[in-house]
Write a structure and sequence with these properties.
Elements: H1 3-22, H2 30-54, H3 61-80, H4 87-113, H5 123-128, H6 132-143, H7 147-172, H8 176-202
Helix pairs in contact: 3-4, 3-7, 4-8, 6-7, 7-8
């Protein structure tokens, strides 16, 4: 090989090496696509779980919350009866106790139809609806001799929470029996809630 041919061969090899070293590697390959898809699927799964939890979890949870809230309210109402000084408030409270006793009895049928055992409500829901904050505020009010006014305020708010939850359940259930029960419950609670609110306003 003469010097010119040798130089030409070296030039070709050099250019080939440069071309090979500067060639862009593919940004995505099959393995990276698979890993990226797996990560995306996991992220979507966790977002879905979070959204479901935020919106109330399983469809029966609002109904369980209603049952627990009604039970707690009946306990609060029963405990308050002997502490109330106002005759008007005692009468209102006594009527509410009778209503709640009957409602808590009747809701058992609705829960059974939805495959829910009232004796085995979700423990997290029962704890959240235990009303310990209300009981604490009422005890403070009793010690400060403003029990009636505080009680009327707390019950007005608690009954409003119950009727709001009823509306939420009504909009999501297809059971006509449950809708009828909820309609009747809400219809009977609204005047009582208003009476508690008016008593609180008059004595604030």
């Amino acid at each position: 090989m003469n010097p010119d041919q040798q130089k030409q061969a070296l030039d070709v090899d050099y250019l080939n090496n440069i071309a090979a070293s500067t060639a862009k590697k593919p940004i995505l390959n099959r393995r990276r696509l698979v890993i990226g898809g797996a990560i995306l699927a996991v992220v979507v799964f966790f977002i879905t779980v979070l959204v479901v939890a935020t919106l109330g979890g399983t469809p029966d949870q609002p109904l369980q919350r209603l049952a627990a809230r009604l039970q707690t309210t009946e306990k609060i109402v029963t405990d308050a009866q002997g502490k109330l000084k106002s005759t008007e408030l005692r009468t209102l409270n006594s009527n509410l106790k009778i209503f709640l006793t009957n409602t808590n009895r009747d809701i058992t049928t609705q829960l059974t139809d939805q495959k829910i055992n009232i004796a085995k409500l979700d423990k997290t829901i029962v704890t959240a609806e235990a009303g310990t904050d209300i009981v604490s505020r009422l005890e403070d009010a009793r010690l400060n001799a403003v029990y009636d006014r505080a009680y009327a305020r707390e019950l007005s708010y608690q009954l409003e929470r119950i009727t709001n939850l009823i509306e939420q359940i009504k909009s999501s259930t297809s059971s006509q029996s449950l809708k009828t029960f909820l309609d009747n419950t809400s219809l009977n609670l609204q005047p009582t809630q208003k009476a508690f609110a008016e008593f609180n306003a008059a004595n604030s």
